[in-house]
Automatic annotation (TrEMBL):
Record field: transmembrane: 39-57, 77-95, 115-145, 157-178
Listed name of the protein: NnrU family protein
Lineage, top ranks: Bacteria, Pseudomonadati, Pseudomonadota, Gammaproteobacteria, Lysobacterales
One Pfam family of this chain: NnrU
Keyword field contains Nucleotidyltransferase: no
Location of this chain's protein in the cell: Membrane
Main location: membrane
Membrane association type: Multi-pass membrane protein
Entries under InterPro entries matching the protein: NnrU_dom
Domain NnrU as annotated: residue spans: 3-190
Entry keyword set: Membrane, Transmembrane, Transmembrane helix
């Protein structure tokens, strides 16, 4: 469990730091140079991510602590929430869609939706640490990002329906592929029977 916690602290902490201390990023980039700063940030992020993946895998295989037994219907709600998550996670990359226009930071909302889905459908301590950590990060990040946007007077995005439709279709296809093949392969949990 220690690796999971260390990975969460490193990965989520790094991604919160620029929002909590915006001057720190600028001063570090000025001191190190933009390229080396981005490289160090990426490397530390990968280390944190690797630790949380390995730590979560070890926690699932070790002595597990059940905190609550989710009812079966929460799995079905989790399917819907993860579909929404995939759509929102792709929204920053598919043009001027309605999700970007409305939310400003749809990827953070996608991470929150993914985390909430998994919290509803899983009741072990390691699940609470991983998905609860990402949900807390997402809530705080979204608040800070929206506050920053208002302070900077960011102009709203003018959406179009073509980009929105592409976002929904791409998110749906990615969700299906992940749920059908990658989730069972990587996580060891089949989403669709058979």
């Amino acid at each position: 469990m220690a690796l999971l916690v260390a990975g969460l602290v490193i990965f989520l902490g790094l991604h919160l730091l620029p929002l909590l201390a915006p001057g720190l990023r600028a001063s570090a980039a000025a001191r190190l140079g933009e390229g080396p700063w981005k490289g160090a940030f990426a490397l530390l992020s990968l280390v944190g991510f690797a630790l949380l993946v390995v730590g979560y895998g070890e926690a699932r295989q070790g002595a597990v602590t059940l905190l609550y037994a989710p009812p079966v219907w929460t799995r079905h709600l989790a399917y819907l929430l993860t579909l929404v998550a995939f759509i929102l996670l792709l929204a920053p990359y598919t043009g001027r869609n309605h999700f970007r226009a409305r939310f400003g930071h749809p990827m953070v909302l996608g991470a929150k939706s993914w985390a909430l889905a998994h919290l509803l459908a899983n009741g072990f301590l390691h699940d609470l640490l991983l998905f609860g950590g990402f949900l807390a990060w997402g809530v705080l990040s979204f608040i800070l990002l929206r506050r920053r946007d208002r302070a900077l007077g960011r102009a709203p995005v003018t959406p179009n329906w073509g980009s929105t439709l592409v976002t929904i279709l791409a998110g749906g296809v990615a969700w299906f592929a992940f749920a059908k093949w990658l989730h069972p392969m990587w996580i060891g949990v089949a989403i669709f029977p058979g």
